[in-house]
Design goal:
- The protein is mainly alpha-helical.
- The protein has one domain.
- The chain has two helices and two strands.
- Strand 1 and strand 2 form a beta hairpin.
Length: 77
């Protein structure tokens, strides 16, 4: 059974749920980079963005109980 349309040629494996599929959306607070930020500040914020994205992905995988948010059935389709 297909639960989502997965765009496999995208860098983030974008998924669009099929109708009547349960879904969750995980949102993090905005990360603001001041326009006058120097390279060190930009580097710190980049690390914060990556850490936040990793955390959101872990939360999504925990919610679905699968790796990469895909069931083994969806991976094989």
């Amino acid at each position: 059974m297909r639960r989502a349309f997965v765009f496999r040629k995208t860098w983030d494996l974008t998924q669009i749920p099929c109708p009547f599929t349960r879904a969750a959306i995980f949102i993090a607070p905005p990360i603001v980079v001041p326009p006058n930020a120097n390279e060190d500040e930009q580097s710190r914020r980049l690390g914060e963005v990556q850490s936040t994205l990793d955390d959101l992905r872990r939360r999504g995988e925990a919610w679905t109980g699968t790796k990469n948010g895909l069931s083994s059935r969806a991976e094989n389709q």
